[in-house]
Amino acid sequence: MSGTGPAPSARAAEIGARVEAFVRGTVAPYERDPRRDAHGPSDELVAELRSKAREAGVLTPHILADGSHLDQRETAYVLRQSGLSPLGPIAVNTAAPDEGNMYLLGKVGSDEQKRRFLDPIVRGEARSAFFMTEPAEDGGAGSDPSMMLTTARLDGNHWVVNGRKAFITGAEGAQVGIVMAKSDDGACMFLVDLPDPAITVERVLDTIDSSMPGGHAVVRIENLRVPADQMLGQSGEGFKYAQIRLAPARLSHCMRWLGACIRANEIATEYACRRHAFGKPLIDHEGVGFMLAENLIDLKQAELMIDWCAGVLDAGAQGGAESSMAKVAVSEALMRVADRCVQTMGGTGVTGDTIVEQVFREIRAFRIYDGPTEVHKWSLAKKIKRDRREAR
Fold first, then answer.
1. How far is CA 311 from CA 219, 248, 262, 276, 387, in A?
2. Predicted confidence (pLDDT) per residue in 113-163, tens digit
3. For the Acyl-CoA oxidase/dehydrogenase middle domain, which residue ranges apply (predicted)?
4. Segment (H or E) for 167
5. Are 237 and 187 in contact (CB under 8 A)?
6. Where are the domains of the chain?
7. Which CATH architecture has domain 239-391?
8. 317 partner at 20 to 30 Å CA-CA among 49, 56, 333, 350?
C-alpha cells in the first residue's frame, strides 16, 4: 500500500524511500521502549531517535539544505512515510506542533527570528509549542479563536502578556514558544524562549493520545515581558498568520496519520492471514475479509483527498475550505480503518502488543484537534451560503 497512489516527484520518491527504510528498520523497534508514557516519549528518547535520524540523513526531510521546502504534494509523500510508526514523525522531525511552527516561521519570521527561533527547530535541537487554545472554564478561545482572552499590552519596548492556555502540545520541555494574545489592534503572535518563569505549566492533561512529547498542558501566563522585536509579523494580524499555519497543518496531520493507518492495516492483514478460526484463516471469513477490503478503499480515498488538497495549496490558494474538507474526510476515514484493524485482531487489537491499539487512540484524538469534524462542516456550510448569495 505504501508504494501506491499518485506518483511522487523523483526527489520526493528518493527522500521518502530513505525515510520509510529508516522508520521501518530503525524507529519501529523503539515502539516497545520503556521511555514512553501516557504523556508521550521522553526527551531522552526523542534525542536518541533524532541522533540516529541525523546520522541516517533523514532529519527534517521536508526542508532542504538551502532552507526551501518540498511542495505540499512532495511533503505529503514524505510525511506519510514518516508516519509509518507513531514515533516516526518525532524521530525525523516532521511531527506536530514543530512541523507547523517551522512552516509559519519560515513564512512570517524575520531573518533574525529565523536564525534565533527557527534554525534550532529545523536542526532538531529544540522542540516548540503553539499557545492558542484557552481553557473552556475561562470562556476562552477554542474552535472560535475570536473568543481569545489572553491580553498583550505595550509597555515601552516590551509587550506584557497575561492569560491562560489549554491543550498546549509539547509545552512541557519546549524551548521555543509561539504565544497568541489580543492587543488593542487585534490578535498578535509572540516568539518566546522557554522555559520562562512567567509561563507556568499548571498540569499536563491525561488524554487518550500519547504520541507527542510533553503531552498537552494547561498553562498560566503572568506578566510575560516580550521584547517588541519578538512579535511575529504585525500587531493585529495574528488570525491571518494562524490561517497560514493551520491550513497546511491540518493536511500534515492527515499525511502522518495516513502512514500510521497503512501500517496498522498491514499488521491487521498479516494477523488475519495467519490466525485461524473455524477451520480456515480469518481472511477467508467474509466478515473479516470485507473489513480489510473496506480499509483499502478508505485508505485510497484518504490518499487521493490529501493529494487533491495538496495540489490546491501548491497552486497558491489559501486552501481553508479544501483543508477543512480533507480534515473531515481523512480523519473520519482513518477512524474507520483503525477501528476495523482493532476489530479484525480481536483481543490482540486492544493490547499494547502491536501499535494498532495506539493508532486507534491517536486517530480518535485526531478527529478533534485542529478543529473537530462538526466545526469544519459548519465552516463549509457558511461558505456554501456565502457562495450562493454572491452568485445571485
1. 37, 11, 22, 44, 22
2. 999 999 999 999 999 999 999 999 999 998 888 899 999 999 999 999 999
3. 129-206
4. strand 158-169
5. yes
6. 10-122, 128-234, 239-391
7. Up-down Bundle (1.20)
8. 333
How many Cβ atoms are within 10 Å of 378's Cβ, its own excluded?
A: 14
pLDDT of 305-323, one tens digit each?
999 999 999 999 888 999 9
| 4: nearest Cα among 241, 345, 302 | 302
In CATH, what number does 128-234 get?
A: 2.40.110.10
Q: What is the pLDDT of residues 212-236, one digit of tens each?
A: 999 999 999 999 999 999 999 999 9
DSSP string, 35-81: SEETTEE-HHHHHHHHHHHHHHT-SSTTB-TTSPBP-HHHHHHHHHH
Single-letter amino acid, residue 8: P
Q: Which cell numbers in the block locate residue 54? A: 541525523
Q: Please report where in the chains the cell 457562495 appears, as a residue.
A: 387
**Cell 524521530 sits on residue:** 91
Q: Which residues of 241-256 are buried (b: 16+ CB within 10 A; e: fewer)?
A: bbebbbbbbbbbbbbb
- What's the CATH code, domain 10-122? 1.10.540.10
Judged by DSSP in three states, 7 sits in coil
For β-strands 186-193 and 199-205, DSSP reports them as: unpaired
Question: Cβ–Cβ contacts within 10 Å for residue 370, how many?
Answer: 23
The neighbour count for residue 44, using CB atoms within 10 Å, is 10
Nearest one of 125, 292, 301, 149 to 220, comparing CA atoms = 149
Nine-digit cell string for 378: 459548519
The residues, any chain, with a CB within 8 Å of residue 258's CB and separated by 6 or more, are 80, 83, 299, 302, 303, 306, 330, 334
The full DSSP string for 244-306 is HHHHHHHHHHHHHHHHHHHHHHHHHHHHHHH-EETTEEGGGSHHHHHHHHHHHHHHHHHHHHH
